[in-house]
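Morning run. Coffee first, then this:
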Amino acid sequence: MERELDRLYQTPLGEFTAARDELAKRLRDEGEREQAEEVKKLRKPTASVWLVNRLSQERELDVQRLAKAGEALGKAQSGGLSSEDFATARDEEQRSLERLHQAASELAEQEGVGAPSVERATR
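And here it is:
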């Protein structure tokens, strides 16, 4: 089921509702009425949430780099990093954010999603 839901949330935004309903129907036809009802209740994600989900799937390495840089910057705040290591972590954070912002912009353009959603997804 988890794989099915991952696939559902990878669906283009304009196709989400139809894909959700199709999944619910298939589950119902397979005798999984309870799961079908749960799927039917799922709401279409906002554009910014959809972008974040797609980035987490399609740009996993950049997301991991961003998380690692964030951890390093957290250590720096507690005095656990040299100023050189802090600068390196800050640079990596910026590069990761720039790559993710660019990827989000490209996805948004493909899907007809506006720039405000990209900004909310990548802030």
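The chain has a mean pLDDT of 90. Good start to the day.
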